[in-house]
Amino acid sequence: MSNFVNQIAFVTGAGSGIGRATALAFSRAGARVVVADINETNGQETTELIQQAGGDAFFVACDVAQPAQIEAAIQQTVAAYGRLDIGINNAGIGGRFGRLLDQTQEDFDQMMAVNVGSVFYGMQYQIRQMLTQDQPGDHPVRGKIVNVSSIAGVRGMPMGAPYSASKHAVLGLTKTVALEYAKQGIRVNAICPVYTHSTMVDDLINKAPGMEDRMRKMIPIGRFGEPDDIAQAILWLCADENAFCTGQAIQLDGGFTAG
Ligand SMILES: NC(=O)c1ccc[n+]([C@@H]2O[C@H](COP(=O)([O-])OP(=O)(O)OC[C@H]3O[C@@H](n4cnc5c(N)ncnc54)[C@H](O)[C@@H]3O)[C@@H](O)[C@H]2O)c1
């Protein structure tokens, strides 16, 4: 497993699902972790899980739809740990389940603020900090960012136009910012999971009888993803052994998009 000792990881949406699994995995690999979430109870629970296992973490309450709160969370990270090596922009919402004409302006605006604004402003504040940091020795990498998109970022998703649009936007941001900062030692990648067990996917499963079976049958490997499946790929993307990887969107989908 990669070694993240002496590295500081900031993870949004770390109170649940993929974000929690990622925060725990970074801690197991030696990083100090900032657990950011809008849900204080769940965020504190993730922090306690890390601390009980002997890791170093703290919780910061942060609504990623509010750029000022992201800025404050990054400032708290640096105040506590002195630097930022890894930014994981994971927090997101699934939005209303319905066709285009069922979606409201409020649905669309909220989706863009949470799922796209979080990545745009998250990267702004993360990269601004990373650029102030020395590259260790002649190490080519100054900072690593992973943005959590979705297979709905590479495919259409009927009944979820705002969600699919938001996850396509995450990939546009990832590729563009990777190009803009490649020479300054900042790697930016995205992960595109298929259906993965979490609160978000449970909500989708409960929309209609038989939904879970139908969703599972779409995945060639024959099962949903687990949060730790996604977390392990995020760690791989951030590993310093993986220094040549930037601007990529890894489809972690049990074969879904291969067909
Ligand atoms: N579960 C899946 O099948 C799946 C598939 C593809 C992509 N994703 C993406 O993975 C990411 C994580 O989702 P998950 O499946 O773990 O769901 P989840 O609902 O378990 O976790 C989402 C977390 O984000 C937090 N959050 C929501 N809005 C926030 C806000 N405004 N500010 C700060 N935190 C906020 C929630 O409190 C929660 O802890 C999302 O971006 C989601 O779109 C999930």
TrEMBL record:
Signal peptide annotation: none
GO terms of molecular function: oxidoreductase activity
Pfam families: adh_short_C2 (PF13561)
InterPro entries the UniProt entry points to: NAD(P)-bd_dom_sf, Sc_DH/Rdtase_CS, SDR_fam
Keywords for the protein's UniProt record, in alphabetical order: Oxidoreductase
Matches recorded under PROSITE patterns: ADH_SHORT
S-adenosyl-L-methionine listed as a keyword: no
Keyword Transit peptide among record annotations: no
SUPFAM superfamilies referenced in this protein's UniProt entry, alphabetically: NAD(P)-binding Rossmann-fold domains
Coiled-coil zones: none
UniProt similarity note: Belongs to the short-chain dehydrogenases/reductases (SDR) family.
Name assigned to this protein: Short-chain dehydrogenase
Organism: Spirosoma montaniterrae
